[in-house]
Amino acid sequence: MNLSPFGHLPKLPGPEMTWTPVAALTLIAAALAAAGLRRRDLST
Question: How far is Cα 9 from Cα 28, in angstroms, rounded to an integer?
Fold first, then answer.
């Protein structure tokens, strides 16, 4: 049960960089940020 997002990224410097976990975490972060901005009340 690795709950830290950094546990899914490769340890650098290492043998080889894999971009799949990095891209997945970036997309998840962008979606959460967009959802947070949509719900924010900016009229005041």
Answer: 14
Q: Is the peptide bond before 13 cis (omega within 30 degrees of 0)?
A: yes
Neighbours of 21 (CB within 10 A): 13
Distances (CA, A) of 17 to 5, 10, 21, 36: 16, 7, 10, 31
Residue 22 confidence (pLDDT): 81
Over residues 23-34, the pLDDT tens digits come to 988 999 899 888
Going by C-beta distance under 8 Å and a sequence separation of 6 or more, which residues neighbour residue 25?
Answer: 5, 8, 9
